[in-house]
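Please produce the structure of this protein holding S-adenosylmethionine.
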Amino acid sequence: MIYMASTKIDPVKTVMESTFQIIKSVSADQTEIISDIMKLHLSGRSFDLDPTYSSGAFYKNLSRPAHVYDLNPQKPEIQKADVRNLPLRSSSISSAMFDPPFLVGCTFETSRMGKRFGGFKNWPDFFDFISRSLTELYRVLKSGGVLVVKCQDIVNGRKQHLSHVFIVNKATEIGFLPIDIFISVREQVIIQSALKNQQHARKTHSYFIVFRKESSGKRMKRIQGRLF
Ligand SMILES: C[S@@+](CC[C@H](N)C(=O)[O-])C[C@H]1O[C@@H](n2cnc3c(N)ncnc32)[C@H](O)[C@@H]1O
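Below is the modeled complex.
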């Protein structure tokens, strides 16, 4: 009898090999998440627009979006613009990455962090900014266009502010459909001795939420329950 050892399939190895190729929803590497979003949702292409570009840390090993803006540009190649009023034609953009400021209680005028990343006096200001920005991004995106919002939840005065819940609800109300979600985890956490009487879990994660702009026809069908 002749044994064909080389053609024998090892089921354990096969499962392991295919597992390694699967794109997962959680990663400690932000660049991996952005690159996975590009593979899955942009057919491997780079983003068209980043309206809160800052220094472009997101694109260290990736190609830069064609349109990059920031209210406080860090480099000459970045155009100054407000994400709530972009110098772009309606329905002209295929994809956008939006990483809004998330600090509440410190603003551009009142703190160094606020000056660097932007911030809000209070929660109503934050909600207003997000609503206006999402509305403007909806305007500039083509129907079927992809929007990614990076956000993180915050604890302020012992109160949980689940920003991602507000963002998903507001984006859906405006006409976006959530199509994917990724969680970015920070592996290194600074531990302060003052945290001995810990009241809640220290947040070491943020979200990349992927939305698609629905056409008004599809949206209407969904609202009427005629599209599942
Ligand atoms: C969290 S940072 C973005 C970091 C960026 N993703 C990176 O990879 O470096 C938020 C950025 O939004 C900018 N910003 C704040 N308010 C803005 C506004 N109204 N319009 C456009 N950019 C704004 C800030 O200047 C800051 O650079």
